[in-house]
Design a protein that fits this description.
The chain has 218 residues and is mostly helical. Helices cover 72% and strands 0% of the residues. Mean pLDDT is 84; it is low at 173-194 and 214-218. InterPro entries: TPR-like_helical_dom_sf, TPR_rpt, Ycf3.
Length: 218
């Protein structure tokens, strides 16, 4: 088994620090290997080494500048550093590259709300237009509308969210494969990462507290 395969195996069993050691050894031999950089970037984020994670994704972008998923992954790492401006800039690029992908809009909306609430609502509306079954977008759009005092529209979106949650859950559509390198999307799609981020108790509480504190337009 190669170092890369061993590192991925450790990754899949959540042994992120050990996986990083093997990815490091592999990247000494093949420093431009996008697959290894991608996995190491995820591992670094898992152990809260966010700047190292950003560096790994940046190294990939320097060689594969047309991959929306890489920009989106880097945006999540920027988000954890509370660098919302940089995160939104990366998600802008992801939207530009994949304008028909609803998850690009819903993920940008979540982070965009911290700096541009009107833009965030527009993004959620676009995500819903592209995917009317996106229950999270209905809920988060409702929260933003409620915060803006638009209770009627907020209630409509909360009701739609409840209807979708009561129906059979659907798996999100898979994202396109990253060109030139094989990346295991069943484990690492940006949407799965973003959904974990959005649905985590800690992050939802942070978002709720942000809304309760009131949004100040820049």
């Amino acid at each position: 088994m190669s170092k890369l395969e061993e590192a991925k195996k450790l990754f899949n069993t959540n042994n992120f620090s050990e996986a990083i050691e093997l990815f490091n050894a592999f990247l000494i031999e093949e420093p431009n290997h996008a697959d290894a950089l991608f996995f190491r970037g995820i591992c670094n984020r898992k152990i809260e080494n966010y700047q190292a994670s950003i560096n790994d994704f940046t190294a990939i972008i320097e060689r594969l500048s047309d991959e929306a998923t890489i920009y989106s992954e880097r945006a999540v790492s920027y988000y954890h550093l509370k660098n919302y401006k940089a995160a939104v800039e990366d998600l802008n690029k992801a939207v530009e590259l994949e304008p028909s992908n609803p998850y690009r809009y819903s993920s940008r909306a979540y982070i965009r709300a911290y700096i541009d609430i009107d833009g965030a609502m527009a993004d959620y509306e676009k995500a819903i237009e592209l995917d009317p079954q996106d229950d999270i977008s209905y809920n988060n759009l409702g929260l933003l509308q409620e915060n803006q005092g638009n209770m009627r529209k907020a209630q409509q979106n909360f009701e739609r969210n409840k209807e979708l949650l009561a129906s059979t859950p659907k798996e999100p559509a898979p994202l396109p494969e990253v060109k030139k390198q094989e990346i295991e999307e069943e484990n690492l799609t940006f949407w799965k990462v973003m959904k974990q981020l959005i649905t985590s108790k800690k992050t939802q509480q942070e978002f709720s507290n942000f809304l309760k504190s009131g949004f100040k337009k820049k």
